Amino acid sequence: MVDVKISDILDGKAESDVQLKGWVWNIRFGGGIVFIVLRDGTGTIQCIAKKEELGDKFKELENLTRESSIVIRGRAKKDERAPGGYEIHCKDFDIVYVSEEFPIGKKEHGPAFLLDNRHLVLRSPRYAAIMRIKDTILHGAREWFRENGFTEVTPPIISGNSCEGGSTLFELNYFGKKAYLSQSAQLYLEALIFSLGKVYSITPSFRAEKSRTRRHLAEYWHIEAEEPWTTEEENEKIEENLVFHIIRKVLDERKRELSMFRDPSTLERIQKPFPRIKYSEVINTLQKNGYDIKWGDDLGADEEYFISKKFDSPFFIQNFPKEAKAFYMKRLDEKLVKCADMIAPEGYGEMIGGSERETDVDVLIKRLEEQEENIENYKWYLDLRRYGSVSHSGFGLGTERMVWWICKLDHIRDTIPFPRVINRYYP
Ligand code: 4AD
Ligand code: MG
After folding, report:
1. What is the total count of domains within the chain?
2. Domain annotation covers residue 425
3. What is the mean pLDDT of residues 245-266?
4. pLDDT of residue 240
5. What is the pLDDT of residue 64?
6. Is there a single domain that holds both residue 224 and residue 308?
7. CATH number of residue 75's parent domain
8. 149/274 same-domain check
9. pLDDT digits (tens, 9 = 90+) for 152-193
10. In Å, how far from its chain's centre is CA 95?
11. What is the pLDDT of residues 43-64, one digit of tens each?
12. By CB count within 10 A, which of 72, 163, 211, 370 is most buried?
């Protein structure tokens, strides 16, 4: 008998006589018959065990509880009525471990209880599906970068300077000196383009977000790229091609998982090029719709939600005022910078922040001073402009923001197995 995964059966790829190794997700006892919903991390399938077929051994099943581990041997049968379209007729089994009563019941639990028991909650098929979609997103990103001439690099996580401003920095005691957890690999990627050309990294980034929101994590996985000899227009095409590739990959590999969260055809309809609108147009639209926002302000969550609701494809908001953005963005004119945020549609919001980088060392120094940064900490960064500076651009994609949108989840914390948010780092 061959060992198979539940997904092999659901995909119609398995032989009919199979051996499955998994955990009891649900169990129901009837007279002389037991229904076990088995999960193995690749999917769930109903297994039917009958007393008339198993004889004396059937009694062993009476001890079985949810989350017990078990090996089941039997015949996989197509059955339109079964969830997933297949069923296993159990011929034999080995109970590996009878689980204590599983604290996560079928009944409703409050969010705090579920977060305290996250290590167990993650076993549910819903979280397994989200994590598999995330796996495909990360894999799709690496695949696209490699096919397009980018080299993966490993920037530091501990840094002596900020990239995105002081208000969200996590401070660290670094052998008695002050250091920070990285908010972004960008400044280091900028150094590495001079060595390698196009580079990218996938690292944790940290933001000490002091508010509770549905879209902020204190620790998230940041997909970042930096490209020499590239303008902001070209940078946006790179972002668009990358995101489009990832969406197609999720559709190819994870349609079954995706269907648990949304109708896949909503993603199939997305085409390139993505729409592009200007920051100024967004402000006009918001003002016309009664939002209390003035030109120069950054877009808050509510405003982004309102604009994002109007789209069913990712889109760009271009050319923000310099005051609303980080010090390193290149000037377009006196007021604006050459940048764009890619916004996820359907009410989600910012998924990518990208820009062309300022190349003039004096402008950079002035911007750093305006933001009251200690220039000493940025000496190495300013050197990059002194020795063979070239126009260059790059971006950062929040992996969890993308999973959040693609899976149409309520809260971003469900996109990461062990979420770090304000007041929580257990488990
Ligand atoms: O817009 P941000 O702050 O841009 C940067 O960090 C640039 N230095 C990136 C670069 O050019 N290399 O962050 C980039 C993206 C956001 O668009 C968002 O998707 C995600 O990172 N992000 C967060 N995701 C989850 N939780 C948070 N607290 C996040 N903050 C940013
Ligand atoms: Mg941003």
Report:
1. 2
2. no
3. 97
4. 98
5. 96
6. yes
7. 2.40.50.140
8. yes
9. 999 999 999 999 988 999 999 999 999 999 999 999 999 999
10. 36
11. 999 999 999 999 999 999 999 9
12. 72
Positive or negative, the CA dihedral 69, 71, 72, 76 is: positive
Rg (CA), the chain: 26
Asked if residue 108 is part of any domain, the answer here is no
How many other CB atoms sit within 10 Å of the CB of residue 167? 10
In this structure, the answer to whether residues 221 and 340 fall within a common structural domain is yes
Tell me how long the chain is: 427
Where in the sequence is the domain holding 266, given as residue range(s)? 118-415
Q: Please choose from 137, 145, 164, 181 the residue to mutate so as to test ligand 1's pocket, defined by most ligand atoms within 8 A of CB.
A: 164
Q: What's the CA-to-centroid distance between 123 and ligand 1, angstroms?
A: 29
Q: Using 50, 70 and 90 to split pLDDT, how confident is the model at 105?
A: confident
CB 369 within 8 A of CB 406: no
254 in the same domain as 370: yes
**Ligand 1 atom closest to Cα of residue 353:** 1
Token output for 407: 């899976």
Cα dihedral value 418, 419, 424, 427, nearest 10: 0
Q: What is the pLDDT of residue 14?
A: 83
Ligand 1 pocket mutation, candidates 145, 163, 350, 403, criterion most atoms within 8 A of CB? 350
The CATH number of the domain holding residue 289 is 3.30.930.10
* 129 and 36 housed in the same domain: no
Residue 420 covered by a domain: no
Average pLDDT over residues 138-161: 98
| pLDDT at site 67 | 98
133 and 76 both lie in a single domain = no
* Predicted pLDDT of residue 248: 98
Are residues 136 and 89 part of one domain? no
pLDDT at 108: 87
Task: Give the whole-angstrom CA distance, residue 301 versus residue 344.
Answer: 12
SS3 294: coil
Give domain status of residue 297, yes or no. Answer: yes
Q: Identify which of 303, 297, 304, 299 has the alpha carbon closest to the alpha carbon of residue 322.
A: 297
Q: Are the CB atoms for 105 and 65 separated by under 8 Å?
A: no
Tokens of 49: 């065990």
